[in-house]
Specification:
four-stranded mixed beta sheet, 121 residues, 2 domains, 1 helix, Immunoglobulin-like, alpha/beta
Length: 121
């Protein structure tokens, strides 16, 4: 095989390997974003007031949000549809998977502060 033809074959093969590696990295990045843990906690004290942090969290449809707190007072996470966590001073992990696009407000019914989950496509 002539040298120029060997060079073309080598260049073509290298291009295929580079493209395949890029596609694999892109797939891994998308999968990694889907697996990112979205976390909300409760900050504050009885004297300073309590709040969810972050107060608004944006996720994609099909992802979960995890809530946890360790506080001097009991709290909960309660949605308008009646779904809620336990009411306790310490919760290690309450999670909810969001299957539909929309804006979902939740409240700590003990203290009245609220937060929002925005679910995109």
């Amino acid at each position: 095989m002539p040298q120029f033809l060997r060079t073309r074959v080598l260049v073509a093969a290298t291009a295929v390997v580079v493209l395949a590696a890029g596609a694999t990295a892109l797939d891994a990045g998308v999968a990694g974003a889907a697996k990112k843990k979205h976390h909300v906690t409760i900050k504050g004290t009885a004297s300073s007031g309590y709040k969810f942090k972050p107060q608004t969290i944006t996720i994609h449809k099909g992802q979960k949000v995890h809530w946890s707190w360790n506080s001097d007072e009991p709290h909960n996470v309660t949605f308008d549809n009646g779904k809620h966590s336990t009411t306790a001073a310490s919760v290690k992990d309450y999670s909810r998977k969001f299957k539909k696009k929309g804006t979902f407000t939740y409240t700590c019914t003990v203290h009245g502060f609220s937060g929002t989950v925005v679910v995109k496509k």
